[in-house]
Design a protein that fits this description.
With about 450 residues, the chain is an alpha+beta fold. The chain has 10 helices and 19 strands. A 5-stranded antiparallel β-sheet has the order 2-1-19-18-17, sandwiched between helices. Strand 9 (about 180) and strand 10 (about 185-190) form a beta hairpin. The radius of gyration is 25 Å and the shape is globular. The two termini are about 45 Å apart. The model is unreliable at about 1-20 (pLDDT under 50).
Length: about 450
């Protein structure tokens, strides 16, 4: 009898171990790869596929799905960032005896190429001053920035910071916090005061700038190649704006001085700029995987506070909703920090909560459709599933992740999908192909 019980125990133990080791993707080198999968039918509550659902993994840009869920919940879809512009000091006979003050709220969309219809900030300020008959500003242009621990996130890799995708959130943001540099000539457009550009010949093209450094080093194979231009980040977006604002004022015949005239930043408002609504910003950042916009949305839940405060509010929100962040490590809103860790179950639980909430239609619309949009344009493009699967992708070195939904013919989410692969040794395209195959096998069964 004792031997029979022992045999049953061993058989049960082997079956459990086999279940844990069962592969769903079948990748080359999978024995050394970390994989987490969780796919659930929202209608029945049945989990139809899972592998290591509670393994904490690097999510890369899938973090944006959590950031937007949090910002939408706390701030709503119709909120806007507002940037106020005013005049300090007294105004007599067309002369401001003070400064032109810009009070920033860390709007990441100011003059962004991703919202071309909302451009023209400088022109609108000029028009507002002309309407008030302003001919001269005796002081200077003051940008009031109130965001705490602004600038590059020290959890990001230094090699990301100079590239346009590594643009950090500042207290004042302008033109996606980038300028265009031509390495062959050293030309910078628009002018970026304080940015020191150094071009060095090297075996491979690369650009490097330290987290809070003004020195940008461009490594080029051919220093004389004049048709190569690169968008690079700037250490002080407000300085770039100030140059453009000053030029716009001068072109309009409005004189402006160089020395600050007032000690405080109180002012009489002459113009208020409103960003696109948060819903549009979140849709844009999810489809394009925009890191700057994602950081802006994270910080919108704790305006003028620290990044740590915003993350604490995010964690508290999901804890209150019964989605425990116990095994979640959150260092930013974009997922660019390699030290982020989320479990497939945590991400899926956030997605499930949002899909079933009154915000469900809005939130699920943020995810790019497979074979149709943004980072998902090529995924499942030739499959019957194109258009009915919507996923946020996440990829950095050795990381490929997907998270989102399967939709029915009425555009209602029927399943949550999370696929996370870390430290893979096969080609990235194999991870993508294997993920596509898994979804086809699950959703195109006869």
């Amino acid at each position: 009898m004792r031997i029979h019980i022992l045999a049953l125990f061993l058989a049960f133990s082997v079956s459990i171990q086999s279940g844990l080791a069962q592969s769903l993707l079948h990748l080359d080198g999978e024995e050394a790869t970390s994989i987490g999968i969780y796919i659930k039918d929202l209608r029945t509550g049945k989990v139809i596929a899972q592998q290591n659902p509670q393994l904490a993994l690097t999510p890369a840009s899938v973090m944006k799905a959590v950031t937007t869920a949090t910002a939408l919940s706390i701030c709503g879809a119709d909120t806007c960032f507002t940037t106020a512009v005013g005049l300090s000091g007294k105004v007599n006979d067309g002369v401001c005896h003070g400064d032109l003050v810009v009070s920033s709220c860390a709007d990441p969309t100011l003059e962004s190429d991703n919202f071309k219809n909302n451009k023209g900030f400088c022109d609108r300020v000029v028009a507002a001053l002309r309407d008030r008959g302003i001919r001269r500003i005796e002081g200077t242009i003051v940008v009031d920035q109130r965001l705490r621990d602004a600038g590059p996130n020290l959890q990001w890799e230094v090699e990301d910071i100079a590239w346009s995708y590594g643009a950090a959130l500042h207290g004042f943001n302008w033109r996606d916090n980038t300028v265009t540099v031509t390495p062959a000539t050293g030309e910078v457009v628009p002018e970026a005061p304080g940015l020191e550009v150094c071009v060095e010949k090297a075996a491979d093209n690369d650009i490097v700038r330290g987290a809070f450094s003004n020195r940008l080093t461009i490594f080029v194979r051919d220093p004389d190649k004049k048709d190569w231009k690169e968008n690079v980040t700037v250490p002080d977006p407000a300085a770039v704006f100030t140059c453009q604002m000053r030029r716009a004022l001068e072109n309009a015949g409005i004189e402006v001085g160089d020395v600050r005239a007032c000690a405080d930043t109180s002012f009489t408002t002459v113009y208020i700029h409103r960003s696109p609504i948060f819903g549009d910003i979140m849709h844009s950042l999810m489809v394009r995987s925009d890191n700057l916009f994602a950081e802006g949305m994270l910080r919108s839940i704790a305006p003028a506070s620290s990044r740590e405060t915003a993350i604490k509010r995010e964690r508290a929100l999901w804890q209150e909703r019964g989605v425990s962040p116990r095994h979640a490590t959150i260092k930013d809103g974009s997922g660019l920090a390699r030290s982020n860790r989320l479990t497939p179950l945590f991400i899926a639980s956030v997605l499930e909560w949002m899909a079933k909430s009154p915000m469900g239609d809005t939130y699920t619309s943020f995810f790019p459709r497979a074979g149709k949009e943004g980072t998902m344009r090529g995924f499942l493009a030739k499959s019957p599933l194109a258009g009915s699967i919507a996923l946020k992708t996440g990829s950095v070195g050795g990381v490929q992740c997907y998270a989102g939904y399967k939709f029915d013919n009425n555009d209602k989410p029927t399943h949550v999908i999370v696929i996370m692969v870390n430290s893979f040794f096969c080609p990235r395209r194999q991870v993508r192909t294997a993920s596509e195959k898994l979804l086809k096998d699950l959703f195109l069964k006869k």
